[in-house]
Amino acid sequence: MSAGGLAPSPESELDELIALAEQTTASKDALETELEKGRSQLWLLFSVTTVGSVISMMAAISALLGGFQLAQYTIPSQIILIVMALLFSVGGGYMITRRISFLQHIKRDLQLEREICLSLLSMIDDQIQRVLRRQTLSPVALATIQIRIKRLDRFRDK
After folding, report:
1. What domain count does the chain have?
2. Is 1 a domain residue?
3. 123 is a domain residue
4. Does any domain span residue 101?
5. Is residue 67 situated within a structural domain?
6. Max alpha carbon distance in the chain (Å)?
7. In angstroms, what CA-CA distances link 111 with 8, 27, 129?
8. What was the pLDDT predicted at 5?
9. How many CB atoms lie within 10 A of CB 26?
10. What is the pTM of this model?
């Protein structure tokens, strides 16, 4: 209800619904961008961790089995290489797990935004029918509303 006790017009309600849907789609776009960026970072992290772990483990195993016959690889340095290899693997695994958890959180948020957007689009469809029945919109206002709705329609198919 407005300040004078009158209900808002269907046109103003439609405008509010479209504005809310536009905010939701902007949020969806930001989340999709963040998801793609996060996936790229995950692949980079996975690659670096895998390569680093393999190299560390090979150096540790080689030092442990006596592959290095140099005097600098004594028992304490072999243990240090093994510990470093394990820390690299465990640390990388932990970071990968955290990144996957973060991406799952983004996916949940994205799904919620999609559901909200679809719900709003359904409400907009109903409201546009009410507005069209009233025949109170100018052709320019109607064209503007239709353009705004077409921009939102790209999310119906996803």
Report:
1. 1
2. no
3. yes
4. yes
5. yes
6. 92
7. 31, 11, 28
8. 58
9. 11
10. 0.73
